[in-house]
Amino acid sequence: MSETATTRAGSTGRAIPLPARRLPLVPILLFGLLALLPVAVSLGLPSHWLTLVTRAMIFAIAALSLDLILGVGGLVSFGHAAFVGIGAYATGIMITEGLAETLLILPVVLAVCGVFALVTGYVSLRTRGVTFIMITLAFGQMVYFLAQALSAYGGDDGLTLYQRSTVLGFNAFGNRTGFFYVVLGVLLACYLLVRVIVASRFGRVLRAARENGTRVSVTGFQVSQVRLAAYVISGLIAGLSGFLLANQTEFVSPAFMSWPRSGELIFMVVLGGVGSLHGAIIGALAFLFAEDILAGWTEHWKVIFGPMIVLFVLFTRGGLVGLMRKLGIGRDD
Questions:
Q1: pLDDT in tens, the chain (333 residues)
Q2: Which residues have a Cβ under 8 Å from the Cβ of 15 and sit 6 or more positions away?
Q3: Residue 141 half-sphere exposure, CB side, CA atoms within 13 Å?
Q4: Residues 265, 266, 269, 272: what is their CA dihedral angle, to the nearest 10 degrees?
Q5: Residues 6 or more apart in contact with residue 201 via CB below 8 angstroms
Q6: CA distance 89 to 109
Q7: Beta carbons of 259 and 141 less than 8 angstroms apart
Q8: For residue 163, how far is the Cα from the chain centroid?
Q9: Which residues have C-beta within 8 Å of that of residue 7, sequence separation ≥ 6?
């Protein structure tokens, strides 16, 4: 992480100037290009790109939340899609029950995801390594089977929504372009929030604990509490992506929280570059676009897509962001 201070004391006691913090040009260009997409569609770009990129940005929010604990905290969660599914189901159930107001839905989504993250995180974070991965997977599958058992809300067939959330009574999510900019705004807000968290003292402790938790504990920091707080924040952001996903698809399904979906989120983070916040966004966009292109070629696209990802991870260190840096494009977050 780049130094944020302007000076540092040298061995002689004199202040040594530090290099100025570099502007994150890649994120600026990335968000700028995303903001111009509706204009490009109106000028002739395929219209389905708007829907595709909206979906990709929703998953980018989930991937960004995962990167907070995976890339910064070193915690490999294989049940992260559970938060997306919980957010989607909380939204779908409330809309089905006639409570479509966003100002009512969002607090419920965040509360449910926060409680689930707090309870499961407290248990999971008592372990490390493979055990942590398996426990998060178990919690994710528990929620998956719970959703299948909700026969009143579609069960295994999923739940179809016949309207989207409203904002103060207005159908703010009904317009495709308007919804695109809502998702873009949420993505930008989440990116800035996570960026501030990572750059803060809290983020530095979280990153240091990834390298050597015991040494950090000796200095007086409560590593377990820091990790749990990061896990809860990550779950809240992922739940927010579930709220947006339910509104875009107008359908919620247990598949939203299945372990393959958690694996896809990990692939997005790795594809973009673990630890790079804008890399998680780029990885999600690349993942969804590659999926869409291959699906247009053959119905057996997964047979091609899987080996492609494996080969890319094996031969490209640092993901797409690492590749861009080798080409002289972009710098660290």
A1: 444 444 444 444 444 343 334 547 888 999 999 999 999 988 888 888 999 999 999 999 999 999 999 989 889 989 999 999 999 999 999 999 988 899 999 999 999 999 999 999 999 998 888 899 999 999 999 999 999 998 888 888 889 998 899 888 788 888 889 999 999 999 999 999 999 999 999 999 999 988 887 788 888 788 889 999 999 999 999 999 999 999 999 999 998 898 889 989 998 998 888 888 888 999 999 989 888 888 878 777 778 877 877 777 777 777 788 777 777 666 555
A2: 7, 8, 9
A3: 10
A4: -100
A5: none
A6: 9
A7: yes
A8: 25
A9: 15, 16, 17, 18
Burial of 235: CB neighbours in 10 Å, binned 0-12, 13-18, 19+: buried
Q: 144, 88 in Cβ contact below 8 A?
A: no
Q: Which residues contact 208 (CB under 8 A, 6 or more apart)?
A: 215, 216
pTM for the structure as a whole: 0.88
Tell me the one-letter amino acid at 277. L
